[in-house]
Amino acid sequence: MLNEREIESCYLGQFIPVHYHHNMLMDPNRMHNFKRAIDYAVFPGAKVLELGGGTGVLSFFAAQKADKVYCVEFNPDLVQEARKFLAINKNGHKVEVIHADAFDYLPPEPVDVVICEMIHVGMLREKQVDVFEQFKQRYLERFGGPLPVFMPEAVLMAVQPLQKEYDFEGFHAPIIQFEENTVIYPDTVQLGQPVVYSLLDFSQAVNPVIGFDGQFVIEHDGELNALRFITKNILAVVQEQGSTIDWLNHYMSVPLALPLKVAVGDVVDISFRYRAGGSIPSLQASISTTLAQVEQITVDVPQGIEFA
């Protein structure tokens, strides 16, 4: 019989079907950037742990340099897939695929790098934050410090006001949409610039409650009827070059229950609250947008932050 956490996991994305993991193998943006980041972070002789290993591809990348990789996967179908694939790939023998729950597992020895890709837009649905935070506590109790390097190292999240077209052959349906971040959508008007609402640094304690009270400055006349949520995963910080290796999730646009007519120069107050790993409807229900009653506003745009 499933316990409460396992029941929640079935709904919130912890137990992702095999075919979805196959699709991730075909995502060149995800694959290329993780490969680069792992090649940078994992040094010869390292010990590596992957939590939520899926098909085992990220553990495979790590095994090209590491001495030992522990690949933990909860889905028994994926455990079989990972073992099958690793058996036919170079250095796959360095990877031990373990059927276990990432919430409970500890490696038998200290590790240098922990990889976990339980990442959804906005840190919703999947349990990235909870898995990392619980792992830190168990690891320190068992091995003491220092903590290993985490991948991703941090996550930067932003939100952007949109006007979306929700007409589908005459059928009006405001729906949540996931969009490629490299594609221009003619049915979408960007009414303002993205605003950063959260930065999670996994080397520090992370608060699972994510919230925002801020403002947009409207740059185009139109109807504010959706918000675009943007998630940039900082996989590795390349200190020697002062740069990062990043992976940008698909955009998620969430329709607003109460659209607003807006004009150039308007200021819109926005607020929302949700828990990392929570459902998309929990975010959607918390969103509030209203026209601000102000005469003038000065906005400092952070330099060097890009979401493309």
Automatic annotation (TrEMBL):
Transmembrane residue ranges = none
Any one GO molecular function term: methyltransferase activity
User: What is this protein identified as?
Assistant: Methyltransferase domain-containing protein
Q: Which residues form the Methyltransferase domain?
A: 48-135
Biological process annotations from GO: methylation
* Keywords, alphabetical: Methyltransferase, Transferase
Zinc-finger in keyword set: no
Keyword Transferase attached: yes
